[in-house]
């Protein structure tokens, strides 16, 4: 046991070193007025929450111009910003001085901001990863530590949080604590953790339906006239109390609640957000949706498509509420939301990436493949922030370590990839080893991602097609995601996992 914890400590240390190394590079919006990027957004939220009463945090006033990085995340994000603001005020009041601190940049402040991201990871995200790998991952201690290292070195989250500057590790960490709670049979505590994640970032709605269906399915299975009823009551109370505490400062005024909700769900921005590897941006290349579909119709269209895409997986989970089904439903729901929902940002791919990390032990090659593609899909954003070298180094390191430590290329037989359902569906194909086909597709995919990444840096696009490479990156990533969404659905609806997952039964 001591040896295992020593290896865990080394893995955590490596994860911290990589994160800090990425943070030393440039950050989003550095020296670029008038908005200065996401780094300034986080700093500005600290300025607003420290200097203004809570009732004005989400309102447009003379002291709070919502057009300049107005708060657009739920209250827990604002409370986190307030805590950071108190620390900033103690170190240097100029960092959060009202109005005068706009666009503030200094080496000391950069160090402070990066440290707050790392501290959040050390307090929330990394402990959840460690506990998941040790308690809900089957295998030898060496295998658990290998999965832990690959989990911690996933480049997408590191590059966005430490290069682009975000606190995604907080919401994803809280969601992972919720998954851990459900996996260990602590359903009420898991529900509290997920409510906190949802109240930190509204994008956690990507994971909400699987949580709801798993817990409801479990209550039904236990009997709604017996133990299931009492479990349902405990979960309901936990959810209501958690939401009430998070929204307490706003509950006295319904108008304020409506204003916060409007800020959290800004439908007026439209369906499209840059060159994202989702259905709408990819389809817009061929069919100009912006021109032929009205803004209101776009909302209804995306909502209908999202519901149709998430329902099969969620219904399956409701009928069979096992932890294996839960993990797959989390992948399928979040990926369907990413592909079809409204106002998707590039970094939203981190939401499907989290549950895919949970499958590193069960489906190593497919999981590694997805995580590489998810990082590649953000290449235009990463290059915009000057993160070419960190992107290349972290992606290659993750590819090498994950393939080697998880024996991903050796564990790709039809049985281990769970391709039995594919064999039945594609009965007309020659009886070749589908695992070998998947392996070669993986090689070709890595070559395409490497080639497009290099071309995006070294080649100038034609004058008539200035966005050629971002479009190619998003289209290639979209095709990958559609194929993987089909694959994960087939796995969920086919045979169960070979491993028993005894802890959740």
From TrEMBL:
Signal peptide segment: 1-23
EC number, UniProt record: 2.4.1.-
GO molecular function, one term: dolichyl pyrophosphate Man9GlcNAc2 alpha-1,3-glucosyltransferase activity
Keyword set includes Manganese: no
Membrane topology qualifier: Multi-pass membrane protein
Gene Ontology cellular-component terms listed: endoplasmic reticulum membrane
Transmembrane helix as UniProt keyword: yes
InterPro entries: Glyco_trans_ALG6/ALG8
Keywords: Endoplasmic reticulum, Glycosyltransferase, Membrane, Signal, Transferase, Transmembrane, Transmembrane helix
Family: Belongs to the ALG6/ALG8 glucosyltransferase family.
Protein name: Alpha-1,3-glucosyltransferase
Organism: Takifugu flavidus (sansaifugu)
């Amino acid at each position: 046991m001591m040896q295992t914890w020593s290896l865990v400590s080394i893995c955590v240390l490596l994860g911290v070193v990589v994160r800090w190394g990425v943070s030393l590079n440039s950050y989003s919006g550095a020296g670029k007025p008038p908005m200065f990027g996401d780094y300034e957004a986080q700093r500005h939220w600290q300025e607003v929450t420290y200097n203004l009463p809570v009732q004005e945090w989400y309102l447009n006033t003379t002291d709070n111009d919502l057009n300049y990085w107005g708060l657009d995340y739920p209250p827990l994000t604002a409370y986190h910003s307030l805590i950071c603001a108190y620390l900033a005020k103690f170190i240097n009041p100029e960092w959060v001085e009202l109005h005068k601190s706009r666009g503030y940049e200094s080496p000391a402040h950069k160090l402070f901001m990066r440290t707050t991201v790392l501290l959040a990871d050390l307090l929330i995200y990394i402990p959840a990863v460690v506990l998941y790998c040790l308690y809900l991952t089957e295998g030898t201690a060496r295998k658990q530590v290998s999965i832990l290292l690959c989990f911690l070195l996933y480049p997408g989250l590191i590059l966005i949080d430490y290069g682009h500057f975000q606190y995604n590790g907080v919401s994803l960490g809280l969601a992972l604590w919720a998954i851990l709670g459900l996996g260990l049979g602590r359903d009420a505590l898991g529900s509290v953790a997920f409510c906190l994640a949802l109240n930190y970032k509204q994008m956690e709605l990507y994971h909400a339906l699987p949580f709801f269906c798993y817990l409801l399915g479990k209550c039904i299975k236990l009997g709604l006239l017996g133990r299931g009823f009492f479990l349902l009551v405990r979960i309901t109370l936990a959810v209501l109390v958690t939401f009430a505490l998070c929204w307490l400062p706003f509950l006295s005024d319904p108008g304020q609640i409506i204003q916060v909700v409007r800020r959290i769900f800004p439908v007026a921005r439209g369906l499209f957000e840059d060159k994202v590897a989702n259905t709408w941006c990819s389809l817009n290349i061929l069919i100009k949706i912006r021109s032929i579909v009205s803004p209101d119709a776009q909302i209804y269209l995306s909502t209908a498509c999202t519901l149709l895409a998430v329902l099969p997986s969620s219904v399956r989970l409701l009928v069979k509420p096992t932890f294996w089904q839960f993990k797959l439903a989390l992948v399928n729901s979040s990926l369907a939301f990413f592909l079809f929902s409204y106002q998707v940002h590039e970094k939203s791919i981190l939401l499907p990436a989290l549950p895919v990390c949970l499958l590193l032990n069960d489906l190593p090659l497919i999981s590694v493949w997805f995580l590489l593609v998810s990082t590649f899909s953000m290449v235009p954003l990463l290059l915009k922030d000057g993160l070419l070298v960190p992107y290349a180094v972290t992606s290659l390191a993750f590819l090498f370590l994950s393939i080697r430590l998880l024996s991903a290329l050796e564990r790709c037989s039809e049985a281990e990839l769970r391709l039995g359902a594919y064999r039945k569906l594609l009965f007309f194909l020659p009886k070749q080893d589908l695992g070998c086909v998947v392996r070669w597709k993986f090689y070709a995919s890595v070559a395409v991602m490497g080639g497009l990444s290099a071309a995006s840096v070294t080649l100038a696009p034609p004058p008539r097609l200035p966005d050629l490479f971002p479009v190619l990156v998003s289209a290639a990533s979209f095709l990958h995601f559609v194929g993987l969404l089909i694959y994960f659905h087939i796995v969920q609806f086919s045979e169960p996992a070979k491993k028993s997952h005894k802890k959740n039964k």
